[in-house]
Specification:
alpha+beta, PH-domain like, 2 domains, four-stranded antiparallel beta sheet, three-stranded antiparallel beta sheet, about 40% helix
Length: about 140
């Protein structure tokens, strides 16, 4: 059993914050009445903050590679689920993206640039996603 921690991507955090502040500045520089500018900027900041908090709660914090190709995902809020299905994504040496689905239908989005992990951990993650086999019981044999 191998655990691969998935640290937050610092560049993504900086880009999201920069985009949020850029749009707020554009709203504040517009030619509409000040009360509308402040209201629009406040609503945009509030919705951005709520979406960011949701992202931090639902992002994968670590992946556990088990025996026989089994994968478990731990989310940012501490919930853990076994991966039942991996929806199409990109598995390349520079980037790994995928959408992981639990047996209950819960989803989490995996986005791991190569610079966030060591070479060995990134390679292990790529191999685990490629070799993934859903854990199913064969009802014909009772296994």
């Amino acid at each position: 059993m191998t655990t691969i921690p998935l640290p937050p991507n610092r560049r993504t955090h900086l880009q999201a914050t920069g985009l949020l502040l850029f749009i707020v500045c554009l709203i504040l520089m517009s030619q509409i009445v000040w009360s509308w500018r402040l209201t629009a900027a406040g609503v945009y900041l509030l919705s951005g903050a709520l979406l960011w908090w949701r992202h931090l709660q639902q992002r994968p914090a670590s992946m556990v590679i088990g025996s026989k190709g089994m994968l478990c995902c731990t989310l940012g809020n501490g919930q853990r689920f076994e991966v039942a299905r991996i929806l199409p994504g990109v598995i390349r040496p520079a980037l790994v993206t995928a959408r992981l689905e639990s047996p209950a239908g819960k989803h989490c989005n995996l986005f791991v640039p190569a610079h966030t992990l060591s070479e060995t951990a990134h390679w292990q993650l790529r191999r685990a996603l490629i070799e993934f086999r859903p854990h199913q019981v064969d009802e014909r044999r009772g296994v």
